[in-house]
Design goal:
The chain has 9 helices and 5 strands. 39% of the residues are buried. The mean pLDDT is 95. The chain has one domain: Ribonuclease H-like superfamily/Ribonuclease H (Nucleotidyltransferase, domain 5), CATH 3.30.420.10. A hairpin with an 8-residue loop joins strand 1 and strand 2. It is an alpha/beta fold and 209 residues long. It starts with a helix and ends with a helix. A 5-stranded mixed β-sheet has the order 3-2-1-4-5.
């Protein structure tokens, strides 16, 4: 099997949930995923994505399994070929006010609301999302099983990484471009040395003390 054949076979395999939706009479399936629930700094980012079955994108997978270069390439392809997508960020201040799970759900709802095409069903990676008025189909490890969720995971991850690279210029010394706000040893050392920045999540840092 050539590499191209493998990619096509994987795409077909990861279309199973979307095909199920078509068979059930809810053809417009929207994948939803987030990036940045765990970091100590920066926003949480959610993406909603409706793929076009007539414009297949090969190589979709859980964004964490892909190299940064591959993610960037797929991001551009998704933006070009998707029927609709929306990316929403929720800032640390809101995360501190409502907690990270609620902030993530707020971002996801806003991403669905921002779509120019209304989906029939939401495919989501095991988050119980209510309040959109659209039926939800939760899929455990969905970003590795559904093309739509994988595409949303890539959109969210790349968008968030780019935000953190910009923040690295605004708040130098913390290493945001490298660790993207996650709690690495270097990040903790920078907080110890420089203090807390305006993009740190206070609720996360309080848990550390």
């Amino acid at each position: 099997m050539t590499r191209e054949e493998k990619l096509k076979a994987k795409y077909v395999e990861m279309s199973a949930f979307e095909n199920e939706c078509i068979a059930e009479g809810t053809p417009i399936a929207c994948g939803i995923d987030e990036a940045g629930r765990g970091p100590l700094a920066g926003p949480v980012v959610a993406a909603a994505c409706i793929l076009d079955p007539d414009k297949p994108i090969y190589g979709l997978d859980d964004s964490k399994k892909l190299s940064p270069k591959k993610r960037d390439m797929l991001y551009d392809e998704i933006v070009e070929k998707a029927k609709a997508f929306c990316i929403i960020r929720v800032e640390p201040q809101e995360i501190d006010q409502v907690n990270i799970l609620e902030a993530t759900k707020n971002a996801m709802r806003a991403a669905v609301k921002g779509l120019v095409v209304k989906p029939d069903v939401l495919l989501i990676d095991a988050v119980n999302l209510s309040g959109t008025g659209i039926p939800v189909k939760p899929i455990i490890k969905g970003d590795a099983k559904s093309n739509s969720i994988a595409a949303a995971s890539i959109l969210a991850k790349v968008a968030r990484d780019r935000i953190m690279v910009e923040y690295d210029k605004e708040y130098p010394g913390y290493g945001f471009a490298q660790h993207k706000g996650y709690g690495t040893a270097a990040h903790y050392a920078a907080i110890h040395e420089l203090g807390i920045s305006p993009i740190h999540r206070m609720s996360f840092l309080k848990k550390m003390h």
